[in-house]
Every structure is written in structure tokens, then in C-alpha cells.
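The pair is quoted verbatim as follows:
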Amino acid sequence: MQVNIAESWKHILQPEFDKAYFSDLANFVKQEYTQHTCYPNGKDIFAAFDFCAFDDVKVVVIGQDPYHGVGQANGLCFSVHDGIAHPPSLINIFKEIETDIGTAYPTSGDLSRWAKQGVLLLNATLTVRAHQAGSHQNKGWEQFTDAVISAISNSKENVVFLLWGGYAKKKGAKIDKQKHHVLTSGHPSPLSANRGYWFGNKHFSLTNTYLREKGAEEIVW
């Protein structure tokens, strides 16, 4: 099966594309996009892979599923296009960066600037029906993104995995913690953040400290 995904990932993920579950998933997604409004735009479904080549991956952020509001999802977890109001989770991410490393709160919510530095912004589910959170869960995306995480874990070393919230932590079961650096905290959503599970986690400075120790370039958050 041919999937329009960045070349650097194609040979690594081709075995998944050839499996029966992925064929079923592709048919489901095609049907959903034909019959309903779905996000992100079709061309952006694999955007996380377009912006961050396999060899460049230094950090992995795992989200749950795309934003389901009009114009929000752009294929990178937690990210929105310029000109779109920052969703609450993204606001809390930027607030933590502000207090953690002293970077001013940015006007742009487009996180492709992180992705281009080696941050894979991976949602566990890559598509969603408009205004229906979780509507494309348990259709095969989770199996695919588990394979992505396993490929990174098995083939690379010294990657920082940022697991925010219970859902992301479960995805972390595929990570070899002897080879990689795993940081966990509550989710940046207001529900979790306002209970004290997000702010003060210092994940952005801790990530850069680890990368520096391993001789890798730090991320300009």
C-alpha cells in the first residue's frame, strides 16, 4: 500500500502500511473524510513526519488526538497554525516554558519550529471528526503510532520522550528506558494543570540539559 509520508520514514514504516489493520484504517479514514468534516486537512495527516526526519529525531512529544475545532489541527500535536487562538493546553505549555527557561510567551502557536529542530510532535491518533474528541480512536492509529515509537526506541539512542498525562504514559510502554530519557508529568490541559500536575515540571530545561550532556544541540523552545 502506498502512503504519502516523508521519504525518511517510508522504509521504516512500510511494514506497517502492508498490514491488514492499516488497510482497514486507511479505508475508514477515507470514508470519514468523504462523509464528515475531519481534521487535520488530508495533506497534514502525516505532517509530524514531514517536518521531522527520522534521523533528526531528538525529542518525542506524544499527544492524544488532534484538536477538533475549526482550523485548529495542523498535524503536529499541541500545535496550531498562525492566526489561530492558542488552545488552553498550548497556553499552559508556553506558560511553563516562560517560567522554566525565561523565554517570552510567543505570538505563534505553530510548533513546526520545534519539529524542524528534531522534535517529533506525534499524536497517538492522527485524525478526528470535527467537534467529536476521540472519534477516530481504536480504529488502528494507536497500533501505527506504537510502531513509530518502537522504531525510534529500537533504532536510536538518547532520545528524550516527553509523556504528559496518563494516556501518553501508557504509550511509553514501548520505550527502552535504558537507551532513552523519559520525562513524565500531568497533562498541560487546565483540568490537570490547575490541580498542580503540570506547572513546574521543568521538562524544557531538563530536555536541553540531557541533550547537552549527550553532545546534541539544544532545542530553542
About this structure: The radius of gyration is 17 Å. Strands lie at 38-39, 59-63, 119-123, 128-129, 160-164, 181-185. The chain has nine helices and six strands. The first helix runs from residue 7 to 17.
